Amino acid sequence: MSQLAKHLSHALLGAVIVLSASITPAHANSALESWAPAFDPSGAEYSYILSNVSHPAIEGVGVGYRIRDRVWEETNGRIFVDFRPLSQLGGEKDVLRKLKMGAVQGMLCSSVAAANVDPKLGIVNLPFVVDSFDKLEQFRNTPALFEPFSTAGLRQGIRVLDLTGYGPYGWATTTPVRTVEEAKKVNFRIAQAPVNTDLYKAWGLKFTVLPWPDVPQALQTGVIDGLDHSPIVCNITKKFEIAPYFTQINYAQGLFVHLSSERWLNRLPEDLRTTFLRIVKEESADTRERTRQQQEVEIEAAQKSGVTFFTMDPAEKQTLVERAAPVYKRWEQKIGAEYLARVRATLGGAEE
Description:
By secondary structure, the chain is an alpha/beta fold. The protein has helices spanning 3-20, 28-31, 59-74, 92-101, 111-114, 133-141, 143-150, 180-183, 194-203, 215-221, 231-236, 262-267, 270-304, 314-323, 325-335, 337-347; strands spanning 46-51, 79-84, 106-110, 158-168, 170-173, 187-190, 206-209, 226-229, 245-248, 253-261, 308-311.
C-alpha cells in the first residue's frame, strides 16, 4: 500500500474511531457493518467468541477480523471466530469473568488488564523491559521467555496465545515536556493498573487514574494536561487536537494479549486446533509488523497536522530508568525474581 493510500485509509478510520468513543455496545453492530463477514457462519461446528474493547482502526485490534476470515477459509467453515470489538461484551473486567466461566472463548486483552489473570503477565508493563518493537519480537519468539508467560494463567483455565499491540508509550501533553523537571508540572492520566501507579510514584510525577472513556472531557476541562499513551492511539482518537506535544519516552509497548480458553482449545479436534493456533500465530506476527508501519504513518500524519514530537535527552531518560528501580523490586515478588531477571538479561537495558 502506498503512503498516500495509508494516510487516506487511516484518516477515514480515524474519523470512525472518534465517533466510536460515544457508541454504546448496543449500537456497535451498526458501526461495524463494513467489517461484517462475507460468509454465512450459521453452519459452523465450533464458535470462538473473541472480545476487545477498542476499534479495528488500530492494527492490533483489526487482527481479530483477519483471524476470523482465515480460520473460516482454512477450516472449510468449521470454526467461526465471532470477533466482538468496541466493548460489545462489556468492559475488560467483565469479559475476563466471562472468559473464566466459558461464556467467552477468547479476548484481546490490554496488557494492563491481563495482569489480573496472573501477576506474571504484568512483566510486559514494567518500564524499560519490553520497550521496543525489536524486544517485543525477541520476547515473543524466545521460548524460555514466552512459554512461562503463555502458561501463567492455566490455573484459571486461560492460555496466552500471542501478542499484538498499539505502539510504544510516551507522553501527550498540552505544554512541551523535554525534561523530567518539566514533566513534574504536568498531571498525567494513567491506566487503571497497579504497575502504572507504582511507576509514576517512583518517578515522582503527578498522575490521575481515569477510565479511558473519561479522558476526552478531562483533557478538555483541564483536569489532566498529560496523557500516558502511544502516538498511534493519540492520533487516531484525536487526543493531539488538545495535547499537541508528544515526548517519546518508549518505556513500554502498548499490547493486546490474546487470552484463550484452554477448555475450548482442548475440545477442538487436533487438526482444527493445529490450524487455529497456526493462524493466530501467523496473523499476530504479521500484525506486529503492521503496527510498526502504523506507528510511522500516524507520527508522520500528526507532525503534518502540527504536533511537535520530542526525543528525551539520554541523560534525562536515564533519570527515569534509575528512578524505576523500586518498581522492579516490588514486582519481582509477584512475577518471580528468576523469571524477571531472565527476561531483563535476555532483552537488555532501556532502548536509546
